[in-house]
Write the structure tokens for this entry.
Amino acid sequence: MIQKLEKDRLFGYIYLKMIDKITPEKLHQYFSITKEALDKAQKALDKDRLKEAEDFWDMASRYYSDAQYFQNEKKDFVLAFAALNYAHGWLDAGARIGLFKVKDSRLFTVDD
């Protein structure tokens, strides 16, 4: 579940509101950012550890494809969302250990 801060209009309290739905818009946003990261990572493979970099990229790409299947064929947004998170996890891990030579903290968990 995703948490969002909201301000109570009457009392001015800030509280957490649970958002328990994966909307098509939110899923589209995650597909877009993961695809952008996949494309960027593919162009930035570490040549000195090419086999390992390709393996990490391949795993991310497969999870991305799984997410497309879950969304388009199964109409299961929860599994699609989960697969996208796994895909991006592989991309982030590859970037953190230097398998992808990227400097983009918007797409990866790396320093710019």
